[in-house]
Amino acid sequence: MIDFEAFVKYSKPGPRYTSYPTALEFSDDFNYDEYIKRLKNSDPKKPLSLYFHLPFCRSACYFCGCNVIYTSKSDKMDRYLDYVERELELMSGILDNSRLVTQMHFGGGTPTFYSAKQLDRLITSIKKHFKNFTNDAEISCEIDPRFLNEEQLDVLVSHGFNRVSFGVQDFDEKVQKEIHRIQPFDMTKNAVDMARAKGIISVNTDLIYGLPFQSLESFKKTLELGVAINPDRFAVFNYAHVPWIKKSMRKFDESTLPNPKVKLEILKYTMEFLTSNGYKMIGMDHYAKPGDELFKALENGTLHRNFQGYTTKGGADLIGIGLTSIGEGEDYYAQNFKDMEGFEKAIDAGKLPNFKGILLNDEDRLRKAVIMDLMANFALDIKKIEAKFGINFFTHFKDSLEELKELSEFVNITDEKISVNETGTLLIRNIAMCFDEYMVKFKGVKNSFSKTV
């Protein structure tokens, strides 16, 4: 039974750990030559995970923290595809593109803001350069139900896409109006039904709690409607209010945001409601049906986490293509330019559009392994870490374990394992932060990360 009274007092700014070190540590000290060297020397036996960022949207959703460009001009979007195709050409001349591809994801922006013809053009270009997709590759696309038609789905399915994620956030009309995203329930249900009819095997639905004008009663109705759609997975995110980063968030009257007590009530009800309707909690913010492969991976301790979220396809090198995309290798992260001018200028010069990143030292790699295991599986095999990195865990992490004592009611530590209890799963960011040696410089810094609760 989760103790929510114990839970609430631990709210503080903290990373979501889609990477370690976090993106705040990326810099241009990780230069272009280092990146190219790592691409060329990467293990040819390791599979690839491909991420494509399609940044365009018709208009702003005020809650959104993604890197987006607002446009209604198709020629601007075609121009972007021109550059992505050139980036693919450059990448395939550096990286061994005969390697197996086990995962591909389209994110945004709004990938389905592109027409069926444009999507076909992009995917055809990708498969021209990366031909060796595995039979069980996870190929997914984020979808805005407001921009989806049968022709687009036909293209996606014909190219092997098997998973889609529908952005919903909230079905309440008042909330939708405030966040500038009008999306009636019937529109979403029709989009989901159409995807299933076309052969998509896995459907995810994204919801967000903590948005303006949300209440426990209003979110109950959103959850009921969400379950009526019958997705295979739910992602229910805690709204990250970071107006110092995202100007659109400044449009919200902060007095309309639900207070921490209401957010906790929503979270508690969400967990109980989804559990009673056949879903199980998977990692942070995620729920899946017991037959889903994410649930099976959590049970056997093989769940992984990267910039694309939770996945069963661990051990792959992540290659980021497009504006602001992030790639990940064994000992580095590399990010593309965030501005279109820099992105295009690099490609025009015959170079990949990488502008910053970080090279992981031995300590970073060790702490990354610890943090990512905790984030993905709510547990850590201490003996496995000791064997892999040649350390005595309790000596090496003496300071981290001392810090972890503050959260001792949520974790169990033996000579062989750290395991997190049910309440602790909701504080997994706090627990992971104890092993983050970069956090010391953010103590007392107000505008750093979103709140953990």
SSE arrangement:
Layout: H1 4-8, H2 32-41, E1 48-54, E2 56-57, E3 69-70, H3 74-92, E4 101-108, H4 116-129, E5 133-143, H5 150-158, E6 163-169, H6 173-179, H7 185-198, E7 202-209, H8 216-229, E8 233-238, H9 260-276, E9 280-282, E10 286-288, H10 293-300, E11 304-306, E12 309-311, E13 317-321, E14 326-329, E15 332-336, H11 340-348, E16 354-359, H12 362-377, E17 379-381, H13 382-389, H14 393-396, H15 398-404, E18 411-413, E19 417-420, H16 422-425, H17 428-433
Task: Explain what the structure shows.
With 453 residues, the protein is α/β, with parallel strands linked by helices. Helices cover 38% and strands 21% of the residues. The protein has helices at residues 4-8, 32-41, 74-92, 116-129, 150-158, 173-179, 185-198, 216-229, 260-276, 293-300, 340-348, 362-377, 382-389, 393-396, 398-404, 422-425, 428-433; strands at residues 48-54, 56-57, 69-70, 101-108, 133-143, 163-169, 202-209, 233-238, 280-282, 286-288, 304-306, 309-311, 317-321, 326-329, 332-336, 354-359, 379-381, 411-413, 417-420. The strands form 5 sheets. The protein has a 9-stranded mixed beta sheet with strand order 9-10-8-7-6-5-4-1-13, sandwiched between helices. Strands 14-15-16 form a 3-stranded antiparallel beta sheet, covered by helices on one side. β14 (326-329) and β15 form a beta hairpin. α8 (216-229) runs parallel beside α9 (260-276). 43% of the residues are buried. The mean pLDDT is 91.
